[in-house]
User: Fold this.
Amino acid sequence: MKPNDPDRLSSRWVAGISAFLALFAVAVLVKLYVVSIRDGAALREAARDRVVQRRTVQASRGNIYSSDGQLLATSMPVYELRWDASLVSKEHFDKSINKTAIGLQLLLPERSAWEWLTYLKEQQSEKKRYALIAKNLSFSMYRKVLSLALFDGGPFEHGLIAEERYTRLMPLGMMAERTIGYWRPDAKAGLEATFNKVLGGQNGLRWMQHFGKGQWKPLEANYEVEPRDGADIETTLDTRIQDIAHRALLQRLEQFQAEHGCVIVMEVATGKIRAMVNLGREKGDSNYTELRNYAVWERTEPGSTFKFAALLAALEDGVVDTATKVDTDGGVYMVYGKKVNDSHKGGYGVISLGRALEVSSNTGVVKAIYPKYAANPQEFIDRLYQMGLGEKTGIEVNGESKPFIPQPSSARWSGTTLPWMMFGYGVQCTPLQTLVFYNALANEGKMVRPRLWERTIDRGQVVAESEVEYIRSSIASKENVAKVRSLMENVVLRGTATNIRLDSLKLAGKTGTCQLEYWNPEKMGYQASFAGYFPADNPKYSCVVVVSRPIKSMGYYANVVAAPVFQDIAVGITRFIPDEQAPPKGYWTEGLENVAQKQSASSEKQWADAEADLERGTMPNWTGWKATDALRLLERKGYTVQTKGNGRVLSWNPGVGRKTIMLILG
Assistant:
């Protein structure tokens, strides 16, 4: 056979192709072995995971309540509705589509009846398995959609898929919004952040099927792992006092067109925060909202409200007395070439140190106290720390700034640092830290830790509760505290705050007016503050008011801007909040404790029985229930609850729509 014989060439081609096909067949067999035998189980599992997964189901977040039973934050279930058109028979679709399109127009008017008709027909013709119907529907609206003709029947007949999620609502609007706070993956603040583990509960698990584009639907009605709802927390906030404080502060902010301000009202003996208001406005905006928690976060030089801290330190060290005479010397005192000035031109002449505090004389306070510590300033600094003024309060919300007290050993210390501290410059603290000091004065020297959390409630039962905690059992001797308290009363009776004096209610406190950013003429402004307590003869509440950057031409002194807010709050609380007196410890209170223990056990059984009734689809007997307990349980079970009246449940009526109820209280 010749080399170029066509038959020989053809045989070579056939042999080459045969060899290639043989190798290809071997490769295919090897791949089949790998896919089906060696890695088969893992690959099948991976494929299943892409289509069917056991996915996390978020638990319902617990509620946040005020001490007077008002709902401050709650999780409201909302629903996203999808439609699996492949499950609906053509006969059922043709029979019900027209009525359903009209019904959807009435319930979801973003589309006309014709547009709904066209849209549903398109989804049905293409057998779409996850067509969007609506997002963020309430439970009652979801039930109305479910009642339409097309979606009548079981889930495997109508194909309607309801995905539930929870959104956070604040029923009282922006009241205490920054104190309540929020919890999101990208931002956390307030009580929501601090108590996230308690409120968040435990998420569940559910088998779900993937439909592409990140969309999943449940495979069955039951959960693989049932989610456990979060517990509720009750705060120390009283919405009545919060409202009084909010209105009083807002009025003055608007009157003086201030940049922002805050108010805190605290119960003297317990440290319970009854109100915390933070109002500010963006540049160019006339509306005030809760932008930041200024009360806890904002650290500034306090100004003259710090003078009583300086006085108490000097009294404790025994270097001065309130009767010590001091010459205010024309209202100017030179220290290291710098002037200490009084706001009152010409000064006050020769007066006692106590009187210098009443009229807030800078020269009087500095001339009387500064020379006693000039040779050893560390002694004064150490005394401030001993009184608890150098540390955070430990309030439950995050973001509290640490007080700043300069140290003589630091590079920032100068000859004017110590004398300027005497009237509140060079030191920095937050409004809350100022209040804690003044509350200690009202509390006979006992410095109580402030608190916003009252108790945690899970399934109707108290599982944790806060107690009174002391930062310092005593910041000073009772004798020296009494001297300072007497001067605080005189500030209102005959000092810088006589404009808020009342015959019907004794007030005590201290005004503070200080300059902000005084080193920059373009940014310089004023801060007006007032800290004190009431009633002065038997303190029950302490309060601090801080107003930042009022318009100077409208007024900026503390007695004009901040003190009237304090007065309005004191009058409002005294008039409208009943004085609840607890009986002394003894026979009766021990008896009451025994009754309370029995009631707690009874309440636990009552809660469990009611929960079981609701799960069976029957309505429990709500008569005699506390309104807050009934609300908690009904809302947990997806009911929309309306209330009428106040007190305990007298009767109830079914509301309009499924899973709605009206509670009649009295």
The longest helix spans residues 6-38.
